[in-house]
Amino acid sequence: NSPRLKLGAVYAITKAHIDDINARHTLLKSLSDALDDGSAFFLEFQPKVNLHDGRPVGVEALLRWQFREGEVLPPGAFIPLAEASGLITKLDSLVMELAVSAARELAELGNHFAVAFNVTHADVMSPSFIPHLEQLLKRHQVKPEQIEIEITETQAMADYEGINPILETLINMGITISIDDFGTGYSSLAHLSTLSASTLKVDKSFVDTLMLGESNSNTHILDMVYRLSRQCHFKIIAEGIETETQRDALINKGYETGQGFLFSKPLPLPALIDWLKKAG
Ligand code: C2E
Ligand code: MG
Ligand code: MG
Ligand code: MG
């Protein structure tokens, strides 16, 4: 263990750190440039279905970034950076616009369900959030009932006092509010009973370990969340269903709606429209 070796290790760590900072800086610059005109961002849509017959009951819009030719980045690759840098506000307002316009298109084709989009805490808290949404609904002639907003349990509960009145306003407007990744955050039972939300979206991690007839701590959580949803009058949906076994186990637990690759991956709008025609 010579001092020189130790210094080498420190150098390696520092270099990795600097490389990381440089990479983040480059990505941030690209993100900021891409947001100037916005055309590199698009939405894919994943159906939410009735577990019994697979028919659509809604769709969720998920953001994609056409980063380079042939390279599409998933939200996980840039949303954390957008959040940390404040660019998220611009990004989410773009998403809102694209989602409302898709809602209009789907309604024109005779679909009656809502289009959901994901938001972050910072957006919802912005004073321009509701006026902007109202303006978009008016411009695209979309009814609030055709719109659903998803916010994660973690973000909703971290600022319950601040965000709940805004969620309440949105609900009173006729918009559906869903609590995303439910079960991974820390909901206080007291807050849950007064939370202004319509639906709990049970996180994929609980569905992942689901095997028919087998109990483990996650399957117990699925049962608990089911009872909780009945007690507090929330609708409930399970996300990340990949197998028929998982679907059947959820049906056995009383779950009626779900979302996941078993039914459909997120699809570009034209492919979604085809899917909807076939699924009826
Ligand atoms: P989320 O809202 O919980 O979305 C579900 C994620 O799980 C999506 O990943 C979806 O493609 C994926 N997924 C759905 N079904 C399955 C399945 O059966 N198996 C597997 N392995 N994955 C499945 P995606 O599109 O990468 O989105 C990740 C997260 O990024 C979303 O989680 C959401 O929190 C966030 N996000 C997506 N779009 C937006 C956006 O427009 N604005 C904001 N603020 N966040 C967004
Ligand atoms: Mg979501
Ligand atoms: Mg989710
Ligand atoms: Mg999730």
Features:
single chain; 280 residues; alpha/beta; nine-stranded mixed sheet; binds ligand C2E; binds magnesium ion; Diguanylate phosphodiesterase
Can you count the beta strands? 9
Low-confidence stretches: none
Rg, please?
Answer: 21 Å
Classify the oligomer.
single chain
Q: Provide the succession of SSEs.
A: HEEEHHEHHEHHEHEHHEHEH
β-strand amount: 15-25%
> What structural category arises from helix and sheet content?
alpha/beta
Major beta sheet summary = 9 strands, mixed
Q: List bound small molecules.
A: ligand C2E, magnesium ion
What's the pLDDT, averaged over the residues? 93
Helical content (DSSP H or I, runs of 4+): 40-55%
Number of helices: 12
Distance between the termini: 69 Å
Shape: globular
Protein name: Diguanylate phosphodiesterase
Domain EAL: 24-280
Chain-wise SSE layout:
Elements: H1 3-37, E1 41-50, E2 56-68, E3 71-73, H2 79-85, H3 88-108, E4 114-118, H4 121-125, H5 129-139, E5 147-152, H6 153-158, H7 160-173, E6 176-182, H8 189-194, E7 199-202, H9 204-208, H10 217-231, E8 235-238, H11 244-252, E9 257-258, H12 269-279
Parallel strand pairs: 2-4, 4-5, 5-6, 6-7, 7-8
Antiparallel strand pairs: 1-2, 1-9, 2-3
One magnesium ion binds at residues 60, 118, 150, 180.
Domain EAL: 24-280
Organism: Alteromonas confluentis
Protein name: Diguanylate phosphodiesterase
